[in-house]
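dumping these here so i dont lose them again. two proteins, back to back, each one seq then C-alpha cells. dont judge the mess
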Amino acid sequence: MIDPDKGFSFHPHAEMEITTIVLEGELTHQDNMGNSGTLRNEDMRCITTGTGIEHSEFNRGRKPLRLYQI
C-alpha cells in the first residue's frame, strides 16, 4: 500500500520487464524517456527497460493505493 502523496522518486532499472496492476487508487508514472500517465483501478502497464531507464511512481490521489507489481 502507498499512502497519498507518497511514492518513489526517480530510480534506475535495466534488463527487465515490470508489470503493474492497480487494485485500488491511482498511480502516476513518469520516466526519463518522456512518458507519463496515471493508472487507475484495474489498469495495467508493462515496461520493458532495455539497456536502462529511470522512472518515478507516486500516489497523487486522495486514497491509499494498492497495486501488484512484478
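---- next one ----
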Amino acid sequence: MPSRAAAEPFDALAFRTAWQQADQLVQAGQVNRTWLWGPAAGFSVNEPYVEANGGKRLVQYFDKSRMELTDPSRSLEDPWRVTNGLIVREMVTGQIQTGDTQFVAKERPMIPVAGDLINNPTAATYANFGRFEPSLVDGTHESKLLGQPVTSVWYSEAGGGVNRSLGTQYPETANTAYDDVTGHNLPGVFWRYFSQAGDIIERGQRVRSQPLFDWLYVAGHPITAAYWTKAVVGGHERDVLVQLFERRVLTYTPSNVLAWQVEMGNVGQHYANWRYGKTVSERSIDCSMVEQVAPDSPDGHTISTQLLADLSTLPQIGTPLQFASVVSIDRDSGWVLVQASFKGNAEPGIFALQKTSNGYHYVTAWSGVTDRADTIRSYLAAHIPGAPGALTACLAPSGFVDPASAH
C-alpha cells in the first residue's frame, strides 16, 4: 500500500509566507533567535467574524499566535493581509471577538501567562491580570519612568507589589520607551528585542531586515505594565519578567542563554486551550478513522460482555445500567472506548479497553459530568499512554466521539 503524502501544514499561502519570513531560518538552525510564531503550523478553523466574507474568516493557530485572513482580496504585498489575533486582549477581558464591534462573553482563563501550564501556582494568570491589573480595570496610565528598572511584581494570588531588589539585580530592564497610546513603559530588554536586526526570508531570498519585524503588527500596543513574576519553567521556579500586549505576551528570563532570554509567550497555545479545549497540534489527528459500533451489533455485544465480566471483579466501579454506545477508534491498535451509565448513579462513564490475545479487556475509566472534552481527554491520555492519539483527541464536546463534529 502506498504511503500517504504529508499534508500541507498551512491552510493558506499567505499564512505560509508570513511564517517563513521570520521562522523558517530558525527552524533550519541557520539563525540563533527565538520563535516569532512557533516551530509548526497548528490547526485551522473558519471562525465567525461579522465583517468577513460570508460571516467567517480562516484562522490558523501557532504556539505563539493566531494568524487571520479576514479579507483574502487584499494585495499579497499588503503586510496586513494576514493579521495577528488580538487574543491576549480577549483572554484578559473574557470577550471573544466575533466582529469589529461584536463580542461573546467567556470566563477568563486561569492559565499562567508564562511557564508550565500545570504545577505553576505563583505565576500570574490571564484571569488575575484581567480582574486586578490597574490599566485593565480602569484604564490607568503609568507615569513615564524612562531609565528606571522594573521593580513591580505580580503573583497569581497576591496580585501586584514592589520588590526594589529586582531593579538592582536586573538593571538591564530599565525602561527605554513609552507607548503614549495605552500609557505604558517598555523595559529595555523588550524594546531592544523589538528593535533588533536579523535575517529573514523575503520573496524566497535571505535578506537582512532592520528591524526584524514591525512590533506593532506582531504584538500590538502594551495593555499592562511590565511585572516580575515567579514562574515554574521546566519544573524549576524562575524570575520571569512579563508584559502583556494586545496580541502577544513578552517574557524575559534572565537565567536563559542570551539568545533565548526574551521570548514570545505561548499565547496561541493558551487561547486554543481556553476557547476550544484543545492543543494547537491537534490538527494532525485524523478523525475520519473514527468508527461507531452499535451496542446490539456482534462487535458491540462482544465488547460489552467482556467489559461487564471485567467490571464484576471491580465492585468499586459499580454495575453499568446500560451501554449507550460502543465506539471503536482504531481496530488495528485494538483500542476501544465504551460509553455507559450506571445503576444508582446519573453520571456517565467512558471505559477504555484494549484488545489482547483473549479478547478486549478493561484498562481504565472516566466518570463524571462535564461539558469540556479536554477534561476527559487529559484524564484518558494520562491513563492510556499507549493508545493512538485519535482515541482521545477526537472526543466531541459532549465527551464522546462524534465523527460528524470531530473534523
